[in-house]
Amino acid sequence: MGQGARLGQALPLGLNPIREKLTDAVEGPRRQSPNDPHVVIADLSKTYELKDDSIESIRRVSFEVERGGFLSILGPSGCGKSTFLMILAGIIPASSGVVKIDSTPVIGPRRETSLVFQVPALFPWRSVLGNVLFPIEIFKGDLKRHHDKALALLDMTVLADFKDRLPEQLSGGMAQRVSLCRALITDPELLLMDEPFSALDALTRDEMTLELQHIWEKFRKTVVFVTHSIREAVFLSDRVIVFSPRPAVIGCDLRIDLPRPRKLEIQETAEFNRYCAEIRASIGVRSG
Amino acid sequence: MKPPTMSSHSPVTAYRHSRGVLIPCGVFLAIGVGWSLAVSAFKVPPLLLPGPMAVFRTIVEERELLFQAAASTLSEILLAIAIAVVTGFATAILVGISPLVRRTIFPYILATQVVPKVALAPILIAWFGIGMESRLILAFLISYFPMVINTLAGILGTSDAMLRYAQSLAASEWQILVKVRLPAAIPAILSGVKITAGVAVIGIVVGEFVATDSGLGKVIIDSSASMDTALTVAATLLIGTLGLALLGALELAERRIVYWQSGS
User: Fold this and answer.
1) ipTM over 0.90
2) Which of A284, B57, B225, B247 is 20 to 30 Å from B12 at the Cα level?
3) Domain of B236, in residue numbers
């Protein structure tokens, strides 16, 4: 099942220095097949057929996602970026084109992919711990073995004291942390995040952004992060792809070369703001 | 955690607690006094409406008859509820998981709702005789449908966000039903049980009016035939009390079962 409990066991450390030397867009930290990108999106289109109308949501999008990288997809509301993520997750079928993960075409949800939604939608009748262990139950995994792992994840997200609480007793930020834990419990190769922080207040959002960066540095999973916040995207990502308004085509594909780990103060630097300005220009939003 | 213990001793909560008991008791007394005053002030003949004391006296005098009748009525009500809840639940699951059943059988279940089932009572007697079977079937016919509809609304009303999440884990339909839809539907199912219980009381009592061989309904029919109005009123009050006790018990059970909803 490939979901061995390897909490805390990220990539072999020796690879990280190599990674920093590489700046080429396609190359990245290597694990298995050195030259294969983790995700390949080829000529992907999505059109919703309605009764007497059709809405073209995504038009012939192609790109590759490097293994262990943090990629953000940015775009105006309703541009199809969420739809795109659902196609990557195998929940929505593409109209044409193909998504390959580890060279295998995506035809449905995969256990090696975890999805974090904008609304956590925790199960209100389950405790925090019960919610985190839910995927293991669905995968018919060993609950006892994953119990400690769940506790470790909750500990990492400062939720250990809340493990027996019910979701209704949690704040929005805490609920989203729980949903991050339940996404990580299956030890996914690919983490897809659909505007996970957009329902949170600004301060919580900053906090969660730092926490996500920390988690990503620790596990080095490939992350595809959908957002409509330019600053969030620049802060978190190695690479930002901007989708145009519907039908979505790639408007800009930008590599973010800021040193890590990034602190919130980096947002005040000229370099950071140059990236933001470049992205804003590609979307066509004037600052004045 | 200290606060709960402290607050239960605080004067404010003590006041609130006592209010929760005092007000209903006060209303109960006021109704009794109002009834008593109305009967004496308007000189209502006891044949039409006896005063509360007369009714109370009758309850004490006829306690054996009333107790037996109430026991019979209550057991039939409970049996009717059990049958309606089990079959209604099963129907809802079938309709919920099978589009075929939803298309072929469900419309007929809906159609039966248009027929006033009390009107079927004479036919039921002709078919099943004067006895428990007729009453149970009548009560079942009335109380089955609310159970089906509420359960169905519950399992089909699961939030899209939860379903989508389960879907992203490639959960099977069965897993989604058992681990997501059903737990999410528990509040709706329990309100179905409450409605079912309420109408099962009506079904059994109306059944006892027609198939008069036992129960409080028979006491009502017999006593009104012999113009023993006090006994009629006593039996009626007992039916009301039974119904209230039943709903109260279900309400308590609901609060324990649906522990994740703190409302009220």
Assistant:
1) no
2) B247
3) 50-257
